[in-house]
Amino acid sequence: AQNQPKLSAFFSLR
Amino acid sequence: MLELRLVQGSLLKKVLESIKDLVNDANFDCSATGFSLQAMDSSHVALVALLLRSEGFEHYRCDRNMSMGMNLNNMAKMLKCAGNDDIITPSRPMMAVTPSPSCSKVQVRFTCCFAQDKIADFEMKLMDIDSEHLGIPEAEYHAIVRMPSSEFSRICKDLSSIGDTVVISVTKEGVRFSTRGDIGTANVVCRQNTTVDKPEEATIIEMNEPVSLTFALRYMNSFTKATPLSNTVTISLSSELPVVVEYKIAEMGYVRFYLAPKIED
Fold it and tell me: Which residues in chain A are contacts of B134 at CB distance < 8 A?
């Protein structure tokens, strides 16, 4: 199965 | 005070058409250097970053930084009004956007180039939007593919009739787009091709390292709505980083879409 991470897993909030 | 005038009003229409299905509401950030927007889709999996530099406008004046929250569908509806009259040339309206002093409304004025006796005014309400800004650092990508935007659009459309996800793999062989569904599998390989009549028809693959990532086709198809903005698209891939799908807006800036890859559990 594949999981769909959110962008916040890669980029930090500014 | 913000004043801007864009001779190619059709360009703004194309920008709105390319992002309005992905993002409902967004803040347009205006500064002396230009007009920008960063917004995520409701599931926070995809992000759009837009830049329109001030030099690209026929007239641009912004005395202080301001953020204007707009419903993109409403803005697209208003911009559509500029192109629905077949008698006046619909594709090249001039456009001025002037927020009112309270900045609660934005006045969008269209003036047609070829029928200067007709002026249409539209006033659109602004909204307060609590948007989250992500810091996107400059990254070294494992592979960068530049290809005709129409070809990329066609591949995404074709594959989405077979599967829900696309595996984009870059190797020495070229760039491979693969999908798998109940009815079977599909693979499209594009090799580097620079021996074309027009530079925009070339496929150029810069590869530092082979890379293979899986993405939801639903989002990729949404990004391809920006195809009318540019003849070429640039796809930047790095393992464990969101893909960047970039459409350059000639001499003005870009629309970039970021999409988080799917990861094996």
Answer: 7-8, 11-14
Q: Cα(B113)–Cα(B88) distance, rounded to whole angstroms?
A: 8
CA B265 – CA B263 distance, rounded (Å): 6
Whether B44 has its CB under 8 Å from any CB of chain A: the answer is: yes
Mean pLDDT by 10 residues, chain B (265 residues): 72 90 92 93 96 88 85 84 42 51 62 57 78 89 98 98 98 96 97 92 97 97 97 96 96 96 89
Q: Residue B107 belongs to what H/E stretch?
A: strand B105-112
| Cβ contact, residue pair A2, B262, below 8 Å | yes
d(CA B128, CA B94): 27
Phi, psi of B82 (to 5 degrees): -70, -20
Interface subset of B 150-209, CB within 8 angstroms of A:
165
Provide residues of A within 8 Å CB-CB of chain B: 1-14
pLDDT by residue for chain A (14 residues), tens only, comes to 789 999 999 999 87
Instruction: Please list every residue in chain A whose beta carbon sits closer than 8 Å to the beta carbon of residue B261.
Output: 5
